[in-house]
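Technical note accompanying the year-one report. For the benefit of new consortium partners, we illustrate the data format agreed upon in the data management plan: each record pairs a sequence with a structure-token string. No post-processing was applied to the example shown here.
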Amino acid sequence: MRDVVFDEFVDLNSKSGDVLRGQHYWKNMWNTIRNYINNPESKFDGKDGVLERKHLNVISIKHIGKEADDIDLVPVLGANLDTFVIYEDENAINTDFEANAEEILKLEPKEVIKYNLSRPSLKYIKEKIERKEFDRILKTTKNRLLAALREKQNQQESIQPTIKT
């Protein structure tokens, strides 16, 4: 069984079905176990000992499936943002938006375009933020900007170099 890593195998992840050979394509069991052990658990606060469960602050609930509005039309017209029933804590969205206003001002048009926000819209919203006119920005726009900001932050975190010990 130990010699299987030296045999040829078909790479099912490639479209061409390349035949590969070599132990460098295989994961070492110890590295897999170490990565599992060292993976930070996001459901708990703390690192060692008895950990406390994190407390969640729910700001929105999105119904999908049978609970969604117009679910019968999805196969014909496709799903859009208005298809789903969304329950949101508007105060939490406003607080989150205002707390992240400085970071939102740093967003670029290329980072928000996939959230259906154009360059002129982003400019207009940034002007509202600079004048502290948060109440003049639509809730859906705030949600879209917060989603774009979270995506940007997640990308920056994944780029950060990891220190191996």
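Partners are asked to follow this layout when depositing records. Confidence is low (pLDDT under 50) at residues 69-79.
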